[in-house]
Amino acid sequence: MEFLVRTENRLPADTPGQTRDQLRKAERERAMELRADGVLKRLWRVPGRNATIGLYEAEDPAALHDALTSLPMWPWMDVTVEALATHPQER
């Protein structure tokens, strides 16, 4: 299944810089692992916001949930997920 995932990072503004840097590095590494596993297909940033839009592929919603919760920034993410279905014109 494919999913469109919108995330907004809500990491508190008073998070120490070193902690913020460590989280960003860990987030990047985990995203690369998900990409290598074929789960994260595409990722776009939203200009002017601390947000992304990602195209994910997972066996089912539970597998997607597992992938998303494995992200180091998960506790501070506001997430919206839309399951995608193939349009008849694409067949």
TrEMBL record:
<comment type="pathway">
    <text>Aromatic compound metabolism; beta-ketoadipate pathway; 5-oxo-4,5-dihydro-2-furylacetate from catechol: step 3/3.</text>
</comment>
<dbReference type="InterPro" id="IPR011008">
    <property type="entry name" value="Dimeric_a/b-barrel"/>
</dbReference>
<dbReference type="InterPro" id="IPR003464">
    <property type="entry name" value="Muconolactone_d_Isoase"/>
</dbReference>
<keyword id="KW-0413">Isomerase</keyword>
<dbReference type="Pfam" id="PF02426">
    <property type="entry name" value="MIase"/>
</dbReference>
<feature type="domain" description="Muconolactone isomerase">
    <location>
        <begin position="1"/>
        <end position="89"/>
    </location>
</feature>
<feature type="region of interest" description="Disordered">
    <location>
        <begin position="1"/>
        <end position="23"/>
    </location>
</feature>
<keyword id="KW-0058">Aromatic hydrocarbons catabolism</keyword>
<dbReference type="InterPro" id="IPR026029">
    <property type="entry name" value="MLI_dom"/>
</dbReference>
<protein>
    <recommendedName>
        <fullName>Muconolactone Delta-isomerase</fullName>
        <ecNumber>5.3.3.4</ecNumber>
    </recommendedName>
</protein>
<comment type="similarity">
    <text>Belongs to the muconolactone Delta-isomerase family.</text>
</comment>
<feature type="compositionally biased region" description="Basic and acidic residues">
    <location>
        <begin position="1"/>
        <end position="11"/>
    </location>
</feature>
<comment type="subunit">
    <text>Homodecamer.</text>
</comment>
